[in-house]
């Protein structure tokens, strides 16, 4: 939900998912993933439609909030 609240990021596939999902990406996905990596975040996997993300119980709210902050900053 937090990712898709960012303008230009939408779920690619409708329906329920377990912990992996694909979103569109409003900026160059390679650049975004590089910025996330520089922040110490394994951001996702680039796919044709955008980025394949994975979130599990091992990701803390603080980690997810940090990821969202970085993605929001880069997507402007």
Structure characterization notes:
It is a single chain. With 76 residues, the protein is an alpha+beta fold. Helices cover 32% and strands 16% of the residues. The protein is built from two helices and three strands. Strands 1-3-2 form a three-stranded antiparallel beta sheet, covered by helices on one side. A hairpin with a 2-residue loop joins strand 2 and strand 3. It starts with 19 loop residues before the first strand and ends with a helix.
Summarize the structure.
Helices cover 32% and strands 16% of the residues. The protein has 2 helices and 3 strands, in the order βαββα. It is globular.
H and E string: EHEEH
Q: What is the arithmetic mean of pLDDT?
A: 95
Task: Classify the beta-strand content into a percent band.
Answer: 15-25%
* N- to C-terminal distance: 18 Å
General form: globular
Give the helix/strand class: alpha+beta
Largest sheet: 3 strands, antiparallel
Low-confidence stretches: none
Strand order of the largest sheet: 1-3-2
What is the count of helical runs? 2
Index terms:
76 residues; globular; single chain; three-stranded antiparallel β-sheet; alpha+beta; 2 helices
Fold blueprint:
Layout: E1 20-23, H1 29-38, E2 45-47, E3 50-54, H2 61-74
Antiparallel strand pairs: 1-3, 2-3
């Amino acid at each position: 939900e937090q990712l898709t609240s960012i303008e230009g990021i939408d779920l690619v596939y409708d329906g329920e998912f377990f912990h992996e999902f694909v979103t569109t990406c409003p900026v160059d996905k390679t650049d975004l993933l590089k910025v996330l990596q520089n922040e110490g975040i394994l951001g996702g996997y680039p796919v044709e439609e955008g980025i394949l993300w994975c979130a599990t119980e091992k990701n803390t709210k603080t980690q997810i909030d940090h990821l969202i902050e970085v993605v929001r900053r880069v997507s402007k």
